[in-house]
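We emphasize that the prediction below concerns an isolated chain of 456 residues; any contacts that depend on oligomerization or on bound cofactors are therefore not represented. The input was used exactly as deposited, without trimming of termini.
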Amino acid sequence: MHAAHIVAHAAAELALFSGVGFLLFGLNDLAVDAVYFGRRIWRSLTVYKRHRRAYASYYVFNKNPGFMAIFVPAWEESEVIAPMLRTMVRRLDYDDYRIFVGHYRNDPATAAAITSVADERIVAVRVEADGPTTKAHCLNQLYDALIAYEIEAGHTAKAIVLHDAEDVVHRFELRIFDGLIDRAAVVQLPVLPLIDAQSRWIAGHYCDEFAEAHAKELVVREAVGAAIPLAGVGCAIERSALAKLAAMHEGRPFAGTSLTEDYEMGLRIGSLGGKTIFVRIPAQPGEPGVVATRGHFPATLGAAVRQKARWLGGIALAGWDRMGWGGGLGERWMRLRDRRGPFAALLIVAAYLAALLWSQLWLATLLGAPVEVRIDPILARLLSVNAWLLAWRVLMRAAFTASVYGVEEGLLSMPRLFVGNLIAVLSAFRAISLHSRGRTPRWDKTQHVFPSEAML
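Result of the prediction step, given as a token string:
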């Protein structure tokens, strides 16, 4: 009996701790929902009554398109870089651009794959260092190559576009950047993971998260005046804004010691007064979906944990020290949301432990043990409120996933929440372990896969 009392008390304390934390998180998420739906209602009643809806095809008719530089850093990407480049030059509906592809001197396979794509618009840039260093270091080498190209060609870039070696671009992407980069220092398009039939649970949970984040979260960030963090792909940086950062950091605009240089880039430009915008726009009337960057995401548990640990370590742990808490109320609110990952993982572990302990007590009562399980009325009300908040979150996740991927994926997003929770917990443990050891940042990349021609 004494042991049962200790177990019951421990379960109640864990439930109270996680319950209060989830209540605060739930109310925070409700505030985001309120801003998002309030903005949608306001725009439908005002903006869309005065102006027709915009389509990406409107930007096709820009009479003076500027020169676009596309940066693609690559380390051990010999299997995907060639088909990616061939697909990119075939799909892009734009004339004036160059693709600067970075590769390392100790990675001859990737270098050979790049040179196998015979196109004058592709510029192979050899990084004179043994890889992997960091993605930011490679990007800085590409920035140097761009400067040399601009001097030689007498041709200054209008914007720098970032992509990874596994990305599938939209044909109108550069036209959108060309049409909007004069109005903003940073333009970010949505990123939509591709469905992986061989990994509906691991890779599939990325579809759920990005469907909601790149349809709601980034919209709200812009609405409350917070800077848009770059996703590292499908984004454009205005040339003078990047030059300003380079001048402030000894010619190195990308944060070479950061694990999440793309995330920091948007915030750094925003802190300097540059406008950052998120653009979610359909391609043309009658064509489903929006202009976005697509690609396969990690399909195994280990790869997903490594990738998310890097994100978590760079944003929530190192980012706290590197970026601080500057900006207005909206900026601080969004940075708080960005950095809650480790605490969220702790709450998830506490909640599952409480559920496990209570399940053991209830099992004992079913087997006839003289154990009485009581839940304090206040705790019961807290758990009830959290249950309703959880139901709302599950509904929102399913709705946003279904809006992008269809009803079947929307329904699958519900059980995939448990997969996401597991990956979040394991990623947090890995990120905290690596951060506490103070390991020198390295390019801890995952193995990439480029979609087949049939899928394209």
